[in-house]
Amino acid sequence: MSLDFNTLAQQFTEFYYNQFDSDRSQLGNLYRDQSMLTFESSQVQGAKDIVEKLTSLPFQKVQHKITTLDAQPASPNGDVLVLVTGVLLVDEESNPQQYSQVFHLIPEGSSYYVFNDIFRLNYGA
Amino acid sequence: MSLDFNTLAQQFTEFYYNQFDSDRSQLGNLYRDQSMLTFESSQVQGAKDIVEKLTSLPFQKVQHKITTLDAQPASPNGDVLVLVTGVLLVDEESNPQQYSQVFHLIPEGSSYYVFNDIFRLNYGA
């Protein structure tokens, strides 16, 4: 809990996307039973269902690249709100897709878990 | 407080962008002293400074159009987290710009205020 919220947001997102891109079936310990994920138009709750949703996505390889990363304190208890905009590349495609993702992180002991997670691809204007 | 979080998010964002696009100097009553705004790389706190930041933006006319709107409960107290992706058109420009914006809304009496607000334009991938 000695990290400032900007450093926490950077370290968390780096860890999260590295884990997502190498083996997203192992993301479960970042979520809890009360966690919610909105992925495009699907909404699921709980670590188990969230990991099932993420592993069921129809691609084998994926690479996230952060374009912007902004964080704000989200409660007096140390919660942190993070907005990421970035691009991702799946499988053998050569055209990156833009996305936006928001994380609401809650402190737990010396670490944080993801309470809210909303992901949206951004289609062209 | 009888609204579900999806309806609240829809009604709030409709009101917010209508007010922003017609007269953004009147947005102050949606923020409080503890509210924070990140607008691109600028970070300001408090209703007064937030409205000053918004009114100082270098355009006269602006029109927001929501593409996607997703909401999740953000606390047991009725907080709501909203992710908007959309496009906006400023002044006489004909090319809309994509943006992402997250609002953390907190209930207050029969209404809500904006606790956290993070806005980012999305540049091409």
From TrEMBL, chains A, B:
Matching InterPro entries: NTF2, NTF2-like_dom_sf, NTF2_dom, Nuclear_transport_factor_2_euk
One Pfam family hit: NTF2
GO terms for biological process, alphabetical: mRNA transport; protein import into nucleus
GO cellular component terms, A-Z: cytoplasm; nuclear envelope
Location of the NTF2 domain: 8-121
Domain of life the protein comes from: Eukaryota
Subcellular localization(s) per the UniProt record: Cytoplasm; Nucleus
PROSITE patterns in the record: NTF2_DOMAIN
Keywords recorded for this protein, A-Z: Cytoplasm, Nucleus, Protein transport, Transport
Major place of residence: cytoplasm
Function: Has a role in nuclear-cytoplasmic transport of proteins and mRNAs.
Protein name as catalogued: Nuclear transport factor 2
Source organism of this protein record: Wickerhamomyces pijperi (Yeast)
